[in-house]
Specification:
By secondary structure, the chain is of the alpha+beta class. It has two domains: about 1-85, Phosphorylase Kinase, domain 1; about 90-225, ATP-grasp fold, B domain (D-amino Acid Aminotransferase, Chain A, domain 1, 2-Layer Sandwich). Helices cover about 30% and strands about 35% of the residues. Strands 9, 10, 11, 12, 13, 14, 15 and 16 form an eight-stranded antiparallel sheet that branches. A hairpin with a 5-residue loop joins strand 13 (about 180-190) and strand 14 (about 195-200). Helix 1 crosses helix 5 (about 215-225). The longest helix has 24 residues, at about 150-175. The termini are far apart.
Amino acid sequence: MKLVYTGKTKDVYRLEDGTILLKFKDDVTGADGVFDPGANTVGLTLAGAGKSGLKVSQYFFEKLAEKNIPTHYLDANIEERTMHVKDAEMFGEGLEVICRYKAVGSFYRRYGKYCEEGQELPEFIEITLKDDERNDPPISKEGLTMLNILKAKEYDRIKELTKEISNLVKSVLNEKNLKLYDIKLEFGKDSQGNIMLIDEISGGNMRVYKENEYIEPLKLEPLLFE
């Protein structure tokens, strides 16, 4: 097992068979001690966040498998905070795909002159480059294809999968009387070029509310499994 990457919230190891092991940490993104799934820096450490995030991710990845939605997930070990996944090729140096149902977070910070905080958004999809130095800038379909980061048909497939995955997560949360405001996903390609969901699906990369009260990542897990 070889360490190949140290990330903000996970360490990445390559196994001898070419598959990948993700080790979840207790770090979460944010600033000044406040959690923010849209942030590109580690803002705080929450004891138990890694195990909780992995448990929620396992739950949703298995839901996606039931619907035959392609992901990199193979299996997970909750006690060891590890997830075993397929290897994946990133688009460029990585893309983040956000599905927004409410005008909050970075969307509201950018466009607050033209919208009210919390107003409805109709499955608004935006893609940002993973680029800490430039604060993960948003980029259009035309920009992505012009820069040869992905092909037009790959963009369309990612957008299709994002809506399908986000709406499944939204539906599951609705059954628990929880509301999904936005969710951040990542995609990659397998060795045959098939696009699949990668990374995680946890409270650390989504904003969930209950009766207009924001649910922190560690509090999402018990609400999901109660």
